[in-house]
TrEMBL record:
Keywords: DNA-binding, Repressor, Toxin-antitoxin system, Transcription, Transcription regulation. This is Uncharacterized conserved protein, DUF1778 family. It holds the Pfam family TacA1. Coiled coil: none annotated. Residues 1-26 are annotated as: Disordered.
Amino acid sequence: MPKVRATIAEPSDDLPMATASSEPKGSINLRIEAGTRQLIDDAAALLGKTRTEFMIESARRQAVDVLLDRRLFTLDPEGHDAFLHALDDPPPPGPKLMALMRRVPAWRR
């Protein structure tokens, strides 16, 4: 099995853990079809959870997965070396980047 190196972007504390806290709570109101609601209720019951617990845990898990998909990637050793080389020795800016950097931002017009 080939070795794989993982590269992780800056560590971050913005991925909340599923722990009880004293933070203020809010609400989210959803409109869903009866069949979808029943599906969620059935799955929650199988796990011994309330609908709310099931939905919050499922949504949190999906949110963390989406965020991690943007932060964690794996490379083989050759790809890892090429990636580090590109970070350490980037190519010079091309004409399109130079033109973009000369543009006045919309908020300053």
